[in-house]
Amino acid sequence: MYDGLHVDITDAVIGCAIEVHRHLGPGLLESVYETALCLELAERKLPIKRQVGVPLYYKEQLISEHRPDLVVADTVIVEIKNAVRLEPIHVAQMLTYLKVTQLRIGLILNFNSAVMKQGVRRVAL
């Protein structure tokens, strides 16, 4: 359900993704899109954390570390994909990232789309 939380940031990220997609098109490595998206976000003066390790605990024991692609303005997680289509596992991954980071909003950006707007999935916790 769309609740409007952090809409200014998510709109800015989506705008940056559209700009990257317009210039690069589909079919490249996810790391290429991540780098280009970071450049666009920095140009708009949005603070970015890239591949930040987030600890995962099980019964108070550290068992793993998750690495979301980007965290924008300490409020929105961004996962970059280059998939034929977004699958339920991509949403499950985002929900896990939101839970372990205690953030509420995430964007899954699938750059393997004919039109970038069709490759955007907003996930709220």
Features:
alpha+beta; single chain; 3 helices; 125 residues; globular
What's the layout of helices and strands?
Layout: H1 7-24, H2 30-43, E1 48-50, E2 54-58, E3 61-66, E4 70-72, E5 76-81, H3 88-101, E6 105-110, E7 120-124
Parallel strand pairs: 5-6
Antiparallel strand pairs: 1-4, 2-3, 4-5, 6-7
Description:
The relative contact order is 0.21. The mean pLDDT is 92. The chain contains three helices and seven strands. It has helices spanning 7-24, 30-43, 88-101, and strands at 48-50, 54-58, 61-66, 70-72, 76-81, 105-110, 120-124. The chain has 125 residues and is an alpha+beta fold. Helix 1 (7-24) crosses helix 2. It has a single domain, classed as Trna Endonuclease, Chain: A, domain 1. The strands form two sheets. It has a five-stranded mixed beta sheet with strand order 1-4-5-6-7, sandwiched between helices. A two-stranded antiparallel sheet has the order 2-3. The protein is globular, with a radius of gyration of 14 Å.
